[in-house]
Amino acid sequence: MSIAHAKSLFFVLTGLWLVAAPAVAAELPPLTHGFTAVPPGQPAPVLKLMDLDGKPHDLAAIKGKVVVVNFWATWCPPCRREMPSLERLRRALPDVAIMAIDVGEDSDTVFSFTGTLDPAPEFPLFLDRNSAVMQAWKIKGLPSTFVVGPDGNLAYRAVGGREFDNPEVIALLRRLSGQK
Torsion angle, CA of 95/153/34/172, rounded to 10 degrees? Predict the structure, then answer.
């Protein structure tokens, strides 16, 4: 194949993608906002990870706060779609901690992906490179999210993409944290 032919093919394929991408996105199921209550008295599993800057974080160290623990990956379409709403949630409820845990990828991949987001996340991102934390939390699919109450126990869970800045989610987290 000549270089000119390869360039032509590239532009044709790129044009097709630009036309098809909105249709593909339209076929994706909508993000939801429901959470399932976890039976009382279930402590959150251990969660100790380094963020992308190499700073260690321990879920146990922030007991007393509501924490949204989100397991995700850059290759997961609903994960990609819900990430901006996590940042909007952080802005709406600054007292709620967010721990976004990328599963099985490296820091360069995660850093590159987050550079494409608007708004860009200002909460810490963590790497679970060997999926050990994912296994400890018994994650079956991505994205998966848990809400940890101020007492350190699991309060809610959700599997699938969420709109974290939905008024119902914000109200749920406010109630859990004792806010009005």
Answer: -40
Taking Cα atoms as reference points, which of 75, 84, 83 lies closest to residue 103? Answer: 75
In whole angstroms, give the CA distance from residue 66 to residue 98.
9
DSSP alpha helix (H) spans, 38-137: 77-92, 107-114, 132-136
For the chain, the straight-line distance linking the first and the last C-alpha, in angstroms and rounded, comes to: 66
Tens of pLDDT, residues 128-169: 999 999 999 999 999 999 999 999 999 999 999 999 999 999
How far is the C-alpha of 3 from the C-alpha of 15, rounded, in Å?
Answer: 18
Name 102's bridge partners.
72, 127
Q: Give the pTM.
A: 0.83
Cα–Cα distance between 44 and 106 in angstroms, integer?
25
